[in-house]
Amino acid sequence: MQTVDTLVQMCGLPRLEARMLIEHVLRQPRAWLLAHGTDALAPEPVTTVLSLAASRRQGVPMAYLVGHREFMGHRFTVSPDVLIPRPETELLVDVALTAVATRSAPAMLDLGTGSGAVAISLALARPDARVVATDLSVAALTVAQGNAQALGARVQWWHGSWYEALPSEGRFDLIASNPPYIHMDDAHLQQGDLRFEPASALTDGADGLTALRQIIAGACAHLNTGGQLWLEHGYDQAEPVRQMLVQAGFAVVRTEVDLAGLPRVTGGSL
Ligand SMILES: C[S@@+](CC[C@H](N)C(=O)[O-])C[C@H]1O[C@@H](n2cnc3c(N)ncnc32)[C@H](O)[C@@H]1O
Cys staple from 203: which of 98, 159, 182, 237, with CB 3.0 to 4.6 Å? Predict the structure, then answer.
């Protein structure tokens, strides 16, 4: 007979991770687990927890095992069809919200929405906005739509490659994107959570700048006068991204650093 406490030991994981898996399977909060550490558990949930723990020991990300991740204070459902939203992407949302702070009913576009984390966070923070989001992955859009419904966000979704996904009419006050920007030869792709995330969400299969280049090249035709484009990128890509923005005609081009002090988000206005 297993109890919560013995099961934590059997998982062979850091205690916090073991507890997260048990909470998930038993559908009980942390406080319940702590108060019922010596209660006998039924065999079925024990088997399920041990199976998840085995996957976790193989490296499967916790977010995929429990099926969700917090972003901007909201709980997003995630599956292996989508990138797990990262804390550093909250900077992109913050910058985007600041960019439209003085505009009423702004039109905002999120290119490559994945779980919908950016678009939905924008829509929830600015209920007066028209928020549009695109992705090349139908499976990702299905996850994003489910998240919008669960969180009560109003977002218009379009399937296709970058701007090609959009209907022809309409321009935006803000375009935000966290595109795949990892160089195809970057060793990080073979490490940690990245091994389990969709390759098309991580890398362009080239130098890491292809998607950034395409998004910058098409931005002018989709922004209103004074509109802004903000892009997340690798810590070592700020300089080329700034150059591309200036060449495309953007002004007031600048880079923001994330909580770790790394240059992560670059943008400018038309
Ligand atoms: C780094 S993920 C970002 C996901 C989400 N915006 C986030 O920040 O968590 C990049 C996303 O771009 C999408 N993507 C890749 N190539 C694309 C393309 N050509 N057109 C549109 N979306 C694309 C991927 O499917 C993926 O969902």
Answer: 182
